[in-house]
Amino acid sequence: MKDQKKSGTGNPISRLEGTLKVMGKAKYSSEFAIDNLAFAQGIQSTVAAGKILNIDTAEAEKQDGVIKIITHQNAMKLKGYGGRFESPDTKSISPSLQTTDVHYYGEYIGVVVAETFEQARYAANLVKVTYDKENPKIDFDKHTDELYMPKKINGESHTNTQWGDVDKGMNEAFKTVDVTYNTPIEHHHPMELHNIIATWEGDKVTAYASTQIVAHAVKTIADTFQISEDNVRVITPYVGGGFGSKLQLREHGILGIMAAKMTGRPVQLTVTRHEMFTAVGFRQHNRQHMRLGADKEGVLTAVAHETTAATSVYEEFQEQCGAMTRMLYNTPNSLVTHKLMKLNLPSPRWMRAPGEAPGSFALESAMDELAFKLQMDPAELRIKNDTQHDLSVDKPFSSRQLVECIRIGAKKFDWKNKWNPKPGHTTKENWLVGYGMSASSRQAPYMESSAKISLKLEGEKVFATVQSDATDIGTGSYTIIGQTVAEYLKIPIEQISVELGDSKFPKTPGSGGSWGAASYTNGAKVACDNAFTSLKTLASTSDDLSIAELMKKAKLKEFEAEGTAGPTAEFDKYSVYSFGANFCEVWVDEYSGMIRLEHFVNVGSAGKILNPKTAYGQIIGGITWGIGQALTEHSQIEPNHGNFITRSFADYHVPVNLDLGKIDVIFLPEEDFIANPMGVKGIGELGITSIAAAISNAVFNATGKRVRDLPITPEKIITTPVEVA
Ligand code: MOS
Predict the structure, then answer these.
(1) End-to-end CA distance of the chain, in Å?
(2) 88, 204, 312, 630: which one has the fewest Cβ atoms less than 10 Å from its Cβ?
């Protein structure tokens, strides 16, 4: 069927909700008009450690429009953690306003509720707080003697793994690399600020909350307020970017819901851009010690990747920087470790490709350093050490086209003709031209996911509505779910409406960890399959009829079907990852150290590409962020007080269109039916992985200078000495 072919998966159709967004009609969580809405503004601590002695709200309370000021002195009792120090997947949010303890600068220690946002904000500035101040732990370097091994790190990754003997492998090597990389704290800044509108009716609460995982937000609210999950409704039809910062409902969400309960008014609480530097997590500073060895032919003899990072004093979080190092290359001797210290900073959390984004910078830079010492083509070094078996878990990969990604990318880029091992070999006027590459990989998780389909027969046509609590965080969830239903109901996409982001719809794992697309579409497919199966029974036929013919035959005008999909035991027999390769050309100004991105080629192998247009959007978004990681992004902290001093886009720099240059994106044809029945591996995080390394490697190729501490700023280029092989 012609129309269905155009609508089904694999077609580059435009976003179903695109027109709504362009017209400003797609409602984000702060845009729900609720009667009698009051506005809340958080009050933030101005010390990083100690106890609150007193909060004087007298003057603030006298101001126009102020309805209530909530602090630990009058806050509702909430369920907190079982213990103070647990990992952030605990259901309850850290106990907001429940104690006088202060854990970091900028912690919410109160909230003002007023008739308008401006009134709340003004009054919040008049609240006077006195503290019994302690000396905060802020400086990473001063506390390295306090490093310990966490029991758990992110992503169900093991804290430490090893096989063989790395020291032996290093001793046997012809060339070795032993270097340390630092990646700084970085912040995610989705365009849509974090926000909640909360409204209570008796024991029932409705929260319009900007969140990536609806079901998790429901659980968090129910657990924290000790009410039944049935009494919680979370609505978030559109999310303006999350990048991990909205995986959890955060403290501000709890404050908004508490404020609504305590005032008896619907309350909106929006985290300002300034507050987003303390209130919604960030990528932690990672120090990564890499040791690599290879024989004369470039065959790896040892790979060691040891990461140290800092968590907060009240929660434990560590991203799995070494995860990719465990599985990317064939090495007889491997060591991967993770260690943490506790600092008086907000808890670091997930940020796009947690683990891989910083981890790939270390691994893929170190591979480039090794290639340079071997005087070997870095693309060939990767190909030489490829493996089809995941040594870290002793399982085959479900599919792995890393070598193909490298070969095809090299061809598109004309790598063989352009690349030369001698740094600075190509110049254009004042520009040193350099070429760099990297390999990448990201786990492709798949989780249980449900959907409901409601069908209506109108004349000869069936109209379908598909519902799930899936979120569209700007990635294209609406579109790929619609395409899946078009394909499996065999009707044009114009007859399908997709409704997402409401906890009254069937459950999904939400959007995160690159599992959204695979999980959502498999759930929707099963709902379609179930509709056909049930209708065939009702129509008493086994003929291959269309959905409209089946409904007619069954004498039904309306019909509903639900479906749930999820991983089977087969999935666990394999290692399921997406793979990629990056090639880039940079120009470095020989006098100023300024870096220009001239050309980027990205090749991805990520299972079936459900929609090349939205997938392309994901990849260029990831590349853009990787450029920011490589060249500009760095959240700075005042070292005595622990206050983030980068507080706006004026001092936290992200790349804009002019910074990008030409970007080519290639998807390899692949359908991985071990990964899941739709053959999808997910693409949200692959795009940023190894981008910074490709850029850094190109900068080295241009200048002979290896900047191992991101971001690579002009001043670092100028002050770093040239290396010799
Ligand atoms: Mo992603 S960091 O799991 O939203």
Answers:
(1) 61
(2) 204
* pLDDT score recorded for residue 79: 83
Whole-number pLDDT of residue 96: 86
| Predicted pLDDT at 6 | 85
pTM comes to 0.97
Q: How many CA atoms lie within 13 A of 582 on its CB side?
A: 36
> How many whole angstroms from 212 Cα to the centroid of ligand 1?
9
Cα-to-chain-centroid distance, residue 224: 25
Peptide bond connecting 346 to the previous residue in cis, omega within 30 degrees of 0: no
Query: 142-168 pLDDT, tens per residue?
Result: 999 999 999 999 998 999 999 999 999
CA 534, 538, 543, 549 torsion: positive or negative?
Answer: negative
**Which residues, including other chains, have CB under 8 Å from residue 189's CB and lie 6 or more apart?**
273, 276, 649, 652, 654
Torsion (CA) 278, 656, 706, 443 in degrees, nearest 10: 70
CA 355 – CA 443 distance, rounded (Å): 11
Torsion sign, CA atoms 410, 416, 421, 423: negative
Q: Are strands 267-270 and 426-428 parallel, antiparallel or unpaired?
A: unpaired
d(CA 135, CA 659): 41
pLDDT of residue 2: 43
| CB 69 less than 6 A from any atom of ligand 1 | no
- Per-residue pLDDT tens digits for 37-56: 999 999 999 999 999 999 99
Taking residue 162's Cβ as centre, other Cβ atoms within 10 Å add up to 13
Say if residues 620 and 21 touch (Cβ distance below 8 Å). Answer: no
Residue 475 beta carbon below 6 angstroms from any ligand 1 atom = no
Tell me which residue has its CA closest to atom 4 in ligand 1: 244
The greatest distance separating any two alpha carbons of the chain, rounded to the nearest whole angstrom, comes to: 80
The pLDDT value given to residue 82:
46
Best residue for ligand 1 mutational test, from 89, 243, 280, 356 (most atoms within 8 Å of Cβ): 243
Residue 447 beta carbon below 6 angstroms from any ligand 1 atom: no
CA distances from 298 to 164, 415, 583 (A): 18, 19, 20
Mean pLDDT of 465-474: 98
Question: What is the structure's pLDDT at 142?
Answer: 96
Closest ligand 1 atom number to CA of residue 351: 2
Q: Are 666 and 408 in contact (CB under 8 A)?
A: yes
**Which pLDDT score is estimated for 83?**
46
For residue 255, give Cα distances in angstroms to 131, 196, 252, 516.
Answer: 21, 9, 5, 28
**pLDDT (tens digit, 9 = 90+) per residue, 423-464?**
999 999 999 999 999 999 999 999 999 999 999 999 999 999
Model confidence over 124-138: pLDDT tens digits? 999 999 999 999 999
685 part of the active site:
yes
Which of the residues 107, 186, 369, 685 is marked catalytic? 685
Q: Which H or E run contains 302?
A: strand 300-312
Closest C-alpha among 454, 520, 490, 610 to residue 15: 610
How far apart are alpha carbons 565 and 517 in whole angstroms?
A: 13
469 contacts 216 by C-beta, under 8 angstroms: no
Query: Judging by beta carbons within 10 Å of its beta carbon (0-12, 13-18, 19+), is residue 83 exposed, middle or buried?
Result: exposed
Give the whole-angstrom CA distance, residue 429 versus residue 701.
Answer: 17
- Per-residue pLDDT, averaged over 26-33, amounts to 96
Q: Where are the alpha helices (DSSP H) in 28-136?
A: 58-61, 117-126
Pocket lining: 249 vs ligand 1, CB cutoff 6 Å: no
User: Given a cut of 60, is residue 1 above it in pLDDT?
Assistant: no
Task: Please state, in angstroms and rounded to a whole number, the distance separating the CA atoms of residues 453 and 562.
Answer: 6
243 lines ligand 1 (CB under 6 A): yes
Atom of ligand 1 minimally distant from the CA of 353: 2
Q: Do 270 and 336 contact (CB within 8 A), yes or no?
A: no
Amino acid 724: pLDDT: 81
